[in-house]
Amino acid sequence: MGKHTVDIVQKCSSVTCPATNKVYNLKKHFNCRNYGIYGSICQRCSAVYIGQTITPFKDRWSRHRTDWNNKKIDINEKNDQAALLKHFINCHKENTIPKFSEAWKVVFLEEPSPTQLDIRETHWRDILETKNVVNIQKMVWPRVK
Length: 145
Prior knowledge:
The chain has helices at residues 5-8, 57-70, 83-91, 100-103, 117-128; strands at 14-16, 23-25, 36-42, 48-53, 104-110. By secondary structure, the protein is α+β, with helices and mostly antiparallel strands.
């Protein structure tokens, strides 16, 4: 695993929904070379961001960190590009933006088949997102329960 995993990635066998305190067991431990569904939790307000990637987690998180560090985004853009930074700027009116690892923690949730990514992302959004939702873009697929 890369140097950033110490600060960002949570190694765990279960995840708890912040809104309901319900615990969901994870079936496998993942590393940064896996792909799939991940969740990120804001360390200030416990808002949840659920995302997916077909590329290795390390590549997706590198893009999240780059967006965070560059801070050159259009806050009004209606897609998930730099969603974590947009959430922080819009919801936490701090004078300075902290290091990425101080603002977000991530849990790798599942590695479904590539054809199931949208469905499984919707599943995890349904059970883990609270009213503090970070995701900006809504999926084209209908939400499945």
